[in-house]
Design a protein that fits this description.
The structure holds two protein chains of two kinds. Chain A is mostly beta strands. Chain A contains no helices and eleven strands. In chain B, about 35% of the residues are buried. The chains are: A mainly beta, B mainly beta.
């Protein structure tokens, strides 16, 4: 059975801390791995990873993929209260269907 | 350019009632899909459409119908609502079917079935 597993399920940190969110996967087909941030409404796109070992970076956020060990991490440095959200990891199966399989998400709370 | 618009934002139904969740996009996106989000389950694909006139089932299609008569609209119908369909529903689109690009999500419809 295809699955995407995220850890931890939830995390509470203080402003300024660095956090690492984990995503592992077991799927029959893999095209890319995506990270989304979800606050109150729609998930918003953060990163798409297709190749191992190439770090994607946007400001204080970065992510990397390991296709041999089947996992990805999302790092957030110098956390701010605005980083509080659910972080979703998803795998794109590829092909003509654009199906995504999602993990259950990591709930991050950043306290002042 | 409104992007992906979902209506209504909130809805309460009684068991057995029917309703249609609306999804409209003005970006001329070819691909449209519906996901539901439940606590502890992540987002799961209900139905999707790779273009006008073409729809297919996702992971959890039972109890839902869809149609795609125009490029812009992809309504999701619940013919006889059940409490198990209490969830948050998201419409997600992509400019071209099969493209290796992230989906764009609407703001969701929160549905409660009593």
């Amino acid at each position: 059975e295809d699955k995407v597993v995220q850890s931890p399920l939830s995390l509470v940190v203080h402003e300024g801390d660095t956090v690492t969110l984990n995503c592992s996967y077991e799927v029959t087909n893999f095209r890319s791995l995506l990270w989304y941030k979800q606050e109150k409404k729609a998930p918003t796109f953060l990163f798409m990873l297709t190749s191992s070992g190439i770090e994607k970076k946007s400001g204080r956020l970065s992510s990397i993929l390991d296709k041999k060990e089947l996992f990805s991490i999302l790092n957030i440095t110098a956390t701010q209260t605005g980083d509080s959200a659910i972080y979703l990891c998803a795998v794109d199966y590829g092909g003509a269907t654009n199906k995504l399989i999602f993990g259950t998400g990591t709930l991050l709370a950043v306290q002042p | 350019n409104a992007g992906v618009t979902q209506t209504p934002k909130f809805q309460v139904l009684k068991t057995g009632q029917s309703m249609t969740l609306q999804c409209a996009q003005d970006m001329n996106h070819e691909y449209m899909s519906w996901y539901r989000q439940d606590p502890g389950m992540g987002l799961r694909l209900i139905h999707y459409s790779v273009g006008a006139g073409i729809t297919d089932q996702g992971e959890v299609p039972n109890g839902y119908n869809v149609s795609r008569s125009t490029t812009e609209d992809f309504p999701l119908r619940l013919l006889s609502a059940a409490p198990s369909q209490t969830s948050v529903y998201f419409c997600a689109t992509l400019f071209r079917t099969g493209a290796n690009s992230p989906l764009h999500f609407g703001n969701g419809t929160r549905l409660t079935v009593t």
